[in-house]
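Give me structure tokens for this 64-residue protein.
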Amino acid sequence: MKPALLTPAEAADVAGVSVSLIYQLCDERRLTHYRVGGRGKRGKILIDPRDLERFLDEQRVEAR
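Here you go.
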């Protein structure tokens, strides 16, 4: 079963960051997301938890 999609606020809570950072990452297309809504409208942003986890894994900095 596919996990439920997260709103930006839920994704921010999971990642431990601000909602504005999630919006910025989506705007910069650094975080994979869905934009649901009518054509020509901003729409609602939804994030797959697996995409969020993948993004966070890519940001990991290993210790020396």
